[in-house]
Design goal:
29% strand
Amino acid sequence: MLAPFVLAAALALQAPDTAHVILVATTDIHGHVVDWDYLRNQPFPGGLARVATVVDSLRNRYPDEVVLVDAGDLIQGDPFATYYSSVAPRDPHPVLDAMNAVGYDAATPGNHEFNFGLAFMDRALAAAHFPYVSGNLRVPPRDTLALHAYTVVLRHGVRIGIGGFTTPGVMVWDGDKLAGRMRVARIESSAGAVLREMRQDADLLVVLIHSGMDGPSSYDTTGVGAENVAARLTGEPIRPDIVVVGHSHREMADSVINGVHFVQPAPFAQSISVVHVDLEHQGEGWRPVRIRGELVSLAHVPAAVRILRRLSDEHNTVLTWMAQPLGDAVGRMKAATSRVEDTPIIQFINDVQRRRAHADLSATTVFDLRGGFDDGEVTIGHIVALYPFDNTLRAIRISGERLKAYLEQSARYFYADSTGRIAVNALVPPFNYDIVGGARYQIDLSRPAGDRIRELSVRGRPVEPTDSFTLALDSYRQAGGGNFAMLKGARVVYDRRENIRDLLIAEVRARRVMRPDMYPDTLWRIVPAEAARAARALFVRDVPASRPDSVPVALHPARPDSARLDSLDRERRRADSTANAVVATLRLPLMRDQGGLGLGALAADAYRNALRADFAIVHQDELVEDLGAGPVTNAMVKALQPTPRRLLRITLSGEDLRWVMEHLVEGEAPCCYLSGGRVTFKSGGPEYHRLKEIRLPNGRKLDRRAVYTLAISERLISGRAFILGPSDCAAPTGCARSGMLERWQVDSRATTSLDALFTYLARLPQPVAPPADPRVVPVK
């Protein structure tokens, strides 16, 4: 029989020294459980039922290695969520019931979890069979945490710490529901202590943050805290390994900043983030040595039958509710052109709000360009599509001066350049563009932003700065949502907490018949006429007038507009048909040569991101224009590369990659731009001795025996040779060698270099800043 110490030594020798963990993440599901679009009554390319299919497959392939998490916004959003959150609540909430069935390990609350009050949120979250975590939700009387700051799950002995944070914007949007009962502290002041504690308790640190990467807040942050701060976690003394980003409804495969990996799946469970983590055993714990994130689209993934069966009754109940008839429409009342001209359907909303609140004026936004009534039966589904949010009605007292400022802020939705070209301002989400009913005004797009409102009058009388009006509006806007600073401090004169959508339903039921001629007036318009035509062309394509049955045809029929049309990715797709559409906004100029950074480095980042490669190289001649600070249009991006090239991904060893890097720095100056690491070299050094060091983004040195992937464009391919030679470089002595491509595995992709630039620019936090990390650095 072995002595105890001998047995322990033997077991230690047998213990594995490597481990593998897979983090799977969702965010901003907004009630999308089954793969069905209740507004269009057709299949939807996402939903938790499809998430379950992928997660089940991963768990079968990687037993006890999968961790499933969510970064918030679950119980508000689509009609399924609306019905079970505000029409017929039940326990357990079907969304949480579905998450239990899928098998989540942890989640953090999103801001929309608070929409229905704390009691409702507590009851819904209490049904979860997994922990909810948050490091910045605090309750009186001692200002203690409302939830555990983090939880720890085990996978093959690896301790995975999962913490959470929620944007403090909750204090603006739903502050009245939290008053005296809870506060959402600033994330920046809360993160440090939580991360320090997590580091003492876990090997791998994961943060679920319902907050965008960075960029301006949609409200006055005074006393509240910034809305979008995920990127600031990289400045903490103890940094997380992986951050799952939510709230901003963007997608991010794997963005690495200061060694921290940021991932963000698409909203509405249209994709999931899958992050593979390799760890090595060190001392008494584990250390991550390789992290690789990717996005998995669910568009062609079948739904898990077990989830569909579990929720079939709930699904059918929602379908029945949506189909309930309210009345009939005689004539079409559609929202397709409502952002560029006064329409009966928006007048209908404003009329209901104004009369209910006994107000002089009313304001509303256009949530969905496809909303409204067709000629025929009007159902609850039509109203839910027209007004999808659970905002309540309020009214405030506002001066004439503030009314004009309010309209000026709304008019910033449109961008006009120095030549008069009109575009949608990508920095202003559609739901922050309001239309005021009861007032007459013009939006003059020939004038600069802030000075566009002309001929503003109420009841036929020009509005004076000292005039006073009552204005009906929704609770989101009244509380400060959208950064309408002029509304701050305005006295609330009406607030009965009435759901605006319910008021619209009641109005149609009472009228029984809806006709466009009930709202005959045109109260506002865009001027001059050419600007109005250009603005209209952004949204509709008019059928030739020779056809008597001609109607405007919407250009955006694919998805609900409330959250998706405001994404920068949709702005990029819109740019395909509109040359002056804004793709992104630059904080500073992006020049082709900025000391190895600038536009070339950003293009390399785009290639690497598009092909999910370890490294990327962009030749200095691939870009022919610079980009100035300010809005970047579709045409400007296309001008960067008049002849786009296909992107290729090469698989090669660290030794071969080092060979490539040697010739990248062979000349007097590097001939290409790099993404994925930091190269230090001695200029003019002897062949194969120029490189001093190659380090990966995580700080580790390049492993000559490891396998890496490199993204390049066909610009660097000639026949079957990988060319880094005189024919491709400005300096004939630079990059003078070529190597044969057959040595390496090549993966051709349909993605072009221009597609990569479009997508990457649109997905970056706005306004875009030039890359700041040095990549190819000379040393003495």
